[in-house]
Specification:
The complex is a heterodimer.
Chain A (H helix, E strand, L loop, with lengths): L1 H60 L1 H7 L2 H4 L3 E2 L4 E2 L2 H32 L4 H15 L2 H22 L9 H25 L3 H9 L4 H30 L2 H6 L17 H8 L6 H34 L1
Antiparallel strand pairs in A: 1-2
Chain B lengths: L3 E12 L2 E12 L14 H8 L9 E9 L2 E2 L5 H7 E4 L11 H5 L1 H5 L6 H14 L3 H4 L12 H14 L4 E4 L8 H17 L4
Parallel strand pairs in B: 5-6
Antiparallel strand pairs in B: 1-2, 1-3, 3-4
Helix pairs in contact in B: 5-7
Classes of the chains: A mainly alpha, B alpha+beta.
């Protein structure tokens, strides 16, 4: 009896100490958790601050130009740095035309590749080759596309133009769009491919069990399922096309006049900024280039937001 | 022999190295409801899928032996033709989510590019839905998406979709396994009814 009484106090003490220890561990774990969460929040917030800082810098930088030119900057048709006349309209037009033209050229290819890899040949040496080729296309630096365009595509386009009635520049809107269309294929193709692959097997089986051929399965089952994803990929490639600078500037002809047709030389906003930044002498000139950057920023943002709402509407259907 | 619709002889199926269906020989008479039973993983589904050649969608599946529909060897026919004559209902209800109830029933015709007139379509939809015991429940909501229906209704819609094609044989792969007891018994009653009005197995 005594023995047990003497012995007993020891045990709870030991247990309590252990419990205390465990509590410490838990507190430590909770602290670790909150520290980890703070790190994540810092990363998230700093990104938002960065985007806002970009935006604010562009706005402050373009104030002198805005004071000098006002809203005329957007619809002015002449870009004459010598006389301090800056109208961004030719470049705005050039950017939009090259991007949408590139998109129209690339869509048949990227959708076909997405369906080919997603549904017809998901495995095998040929599809692996194709997948690697797509990744490579995305990874090649744009200056190399510019070179290729200059030495291969420009002579081809010039030959083509010589046979028709247009002036054979070779460089111009069409050449830039062709280069861009190659460059943007990977974005739409790889995103579309993932969505096509995600089409539920049970829906495909339902169609096959009714005696459908593959084309019909793609048209009535896979396409309705994957269309919002395909659209998202196309939007991604549009964003890429709008901002592409190096390859475009090498083949577009760098003309400040409004292009009369798609064979004529023109220029895009990104290309002008890159080309003329080093030679911008006056403060208004420099500011006009920054404002051009701001317009590009806004155009990209607007198209992104519009595209997202379209995707939302499509995926509801 | 005239009354045999499906005749399989020494039929084997493999997935890769896995021998799933081992020399099945069976005669299935016309106008009958035949159940295939066995523990899970014994190859019931595989055997069914081999009858309308759905197994060919799976990579690495191969078969040996013969399955005949009447006198024709299924493996000498075009798979599309086989699937038109032998319909199938799956374990999980799979109506097309982008089509209305009406569209789902005539989906087979749409998928095959067969042109049928408006009134024929209407008749077929009503007839198939009646046979699938779904008409009374959905006749006022035919234009709504099929995915709004309950699980049991969706499965009956899939049955209607399969019988709209007027197949010679209807394969049902555990059509009630994903459903509640009430839907299960209604589908079982339905199958017995179907046996009386159309040929099926």
């Amino acid at each position: 009896m005594d023995n047990t009484l003497i012995g007993q106090p020891e045990k709870p003490l030991l247990k309590r100490r252990k419990a205390k220890h465990a509590m410490k561990d838990v507190v430590y774990e909770i602290k670790k958790e909150s520290r980890f969460r703070k790190t994540l929040i810092i990363a998230a917030i700093s990104l938002i601050i960065l985007v806002m800082a970009f935006f604010i810098t562009l706005i402050i930088g373009s104030i002198p130009s805005f004071k000098a030119l006002g809203i005329r900057f957007l619809y002015g048709k002449t870009w004459d740095p010598v006389n301090n006349i800056f109208g961004a309209y030719p470049f705005l037009l050039g950017t939009l035309i090259t991007s949408f033209l590139a998109l129209i050229i690339s869509i048949p290819f990227s959708v076909s590749i997405a369906l080919f890899l997603g549904e017809y040949y998901p495995k095998g040496w040929f599809s692996n080759l194709l997948k690697n080729a797509i990744e490579l296309i995305a990874a090649i630096p744009s200056v190399i596309y510019g070179f290729w365009g200059l030495f291969v595509l420009v002579p081809i386009v010039r030959q083509m133009e010589m046979k028709t009635a247009v002036l054979p520049y070779g460089v111009g809107i069409l050449t830039a769009s062709l280069i861009l269309s190659v460059m943007v294929i990977p974005y739409a193709a790889s995103m579309g491919l993932e969505i096509v692959k995600m089409t539920p097997l049970k829906l495909k089986e339902a169609a096959y069990s009714l005696g459908a051929i593959r084309y019909e399965v793609i048209r009535t089952v896979i396409f309705p399922y994957a269309k919002s994803g395909l659209l998202a990929g196309i939007l991604l490639s549009l964003g890429r096309a709008l901002g592409e600078t190096m390859a475009v500037t090498m083949v577009i002809g760098n003309s400040s006049r409004i292009p009369k047709n798609i064979f004529a030389p023109g220029n895009t906003m990104a290309s002008v900024v890159a080309n003329e930044f080093t030679e911008a002498a006056g403060s208004v000139y420099l500011s006009a280039l920054i404002e051009l950057g701001l317009v590009l920023f806004l155009v990209t943002a607007i198209i992104n937001i519009a595209g997202k709402s379209i995707i939302k509407r499509f995926s509801k259907m | 022999m005239e009354s045999t619709i499906i005749k399989s002889e020494n039929f084997n199926a493999w997935f890769g190295d896995n021998h799933v269906v081992k020399s099945v020989t069976v005669d299935i008479p016309k106008n009958s409801l035949i159940a295939v039973m066995g523990p899970s993983g014994c190859g019931k589904t595989t055997f069914l899928r081999c009858i309308n050649r759905m197994h060919e969608l799976t990579l690495g599946a191969r078969t040996e032996g013969s399955v005949r529909l009447y006198a024709d060897e299924i493996y000498d026919m075009h798979p599309i033709l086989v699937r038109l004559k032998i319909g199938m209902v799956f374990q999980h209800p799979n109506p097309f989510p982008n089509m209305s109830i009406y569209g789902n029933v005539i989906a087979g015709y749409k998928l095959n590019g067969r042109k049928i007139s408006r009134s024929e379509k209407d008749d077929m939809v009503e007839d198939s839905l009646r046979k699938a015991a779904l008409w009374m429940e959905v006749r006022s909501t035919l234009r709504r998406k099929g995915s709004f229906l309950s699980g049991g209704q969706q499965q009956r819609l899939c049955i209607a979709r399969a019988i709209a094609m007027k197949p010679d044989v209807l394969l049902l792969d555990e059509p009630t396994s994903a459903l509640d007891p009430i839907s299960t018994s209604s589908i079982e009653d339905l199958l017995i009814e179907l046996k009386k009005i159309i040929r099926s197995s």
